[in-house]
Amino acid sequence: MSRDAASHRDAPVLCVVGARPNFMKMAPILRAFAAARPPMPALLVHTGQHYDAAMSDRVFADLSLPTPDVNLEVGSGSHAVQTAEVMRRFEPLVDTHAPACVLVVGDVNSTLACSLVAAKKGVPVVHVEAGLRSFDRAMPEEINRVLTDQIADRLYTTEHTALANLEREGIAAERVRFVGNVMIDSLLASRPHAVAPAVTLAQGGADPAIASGAFGVVTLHRPSNVDDPATLADLLRTLVEVSTRLPLVFAMHPRTRASIERAGLGRMLGGARIAVLPPQGYLEMLGLMSAAAVVLTDSGGIQEETTALGVPCLTVRENTERPITIDEGTNTLVARDRAAILRNVDAILATGGKRGRVPEGWDGRAAERIAADLRQWLDRRQTTSREAA
């Protein structure tokens, strides 16, 4: 190996996480980098965008993620404030470490902020989970996805339809590689360690007997569903009606709990067969979802996880950036339509519901493919740069 090549391989990959969904995507990538021969040096940067320490620390432990090398501790704020603060704190790291590239995952504010810093400093940007589109520009995540993909140099996709989305936006196919879904790498590695639902219910102060029969799992956190009191009240009424069909386990996000308390809606859940739990760790949620008859959610990641688990999922949104979970998986869009939700729940209880199949590349080895391709790509860039000089 030449001195230039060796120097290039010593430069770290700056791996950025900012919020809980990022952790599940980054854990297998870091393992794959460590298992490569020779290992790929990496630095884990937590922006602190997700500032609930208990939730973050718990997921890090569940996934065996190493302690971040750097925590920027950005915390909360408006989208503009948070994005700007991540950029301000991330730039000195790029200057200090001179990374081979900056690797970002998903679509949170940290994803875009760190990509912008890297691109403006001439550092290659690598985007994992590229090309997903809801086609709803009212979603902040959609803006983050589109802009990150535009400035990324290497784009790794979870499903083949993502390439068509990227090409429509003028992104050349040679910048894109289909690798599969790293979220499913984490799920498959963690499933043997999932916590039994009865244990989770008991620890949360709920009746563990709920887990002895059919039950549903609920997660809701998107601003469009939980920030407006009238919208949230309608959804809670629908959940109460669903609970007359089967008991529900509602792992309540802090944002949702705060909205319910602020609007005085807590009484709506009193007497219903809805076990309200605090936010759960990754292994607890994995156990609940694996055993559920149906999952009602507005989470993008849970749409993917339920497809991999073969569990029917009803997505309480008007659109999804993960169409493969509908076309091939177990997901059905029901928006906030009470009749559609009840109709689908009844069908699931009667027939077992939509089972689908596990999409291509959702096999637990996506991170290995990323590590192999990224090393080759970085080596080619180094060779081209050396020849040009």
Topology:
Blueprint: H1 3-10, E1 13-17, H2 20-35, E2 42-46, H3 53-62, E3 70-71, H4 79-97, E4 101-105, H5 109-120, E5 125-128, H6 140-151, E6 154-157, H7 161-168, E7 176-178, H8 182-190, H9 197-203, E8 216-219, H10 223-226, H11 229-242, E9 248-251, H12 254-263, E10 274-277, H13 282-291, E11 294-297, H14 300-309, E12 313-315, H15 324-327, E13 331-333, H16 338-351, H17 366-388
Parallel strand pairs: 1-2, 1-4, 2-3, 4-5, 5-6, 6-7, 8-9, 8-11, 9-10, 11-12, 12-13
Q: What structural class do helix, strand and pairing data support?
A: alpha/beta
From the N-terminal CA to the C-terminal CA, the straight-line distance is 19 Å
Report the uncertain regions. 1-6
Largest sheet: 7 strands, parallel
- Helix and strand run: HEHEHEHEHEHEHEHHEHHEHEHEHEHEHH
Kindly provide the radius of gyration, computed on alpha-carbon positions and rounded to a whole number of angstroms. 21 Å
Count of all domains: 2
Number of strands: 13
Number of helices: 17
CATH class of the largest domain: Alpha Beta
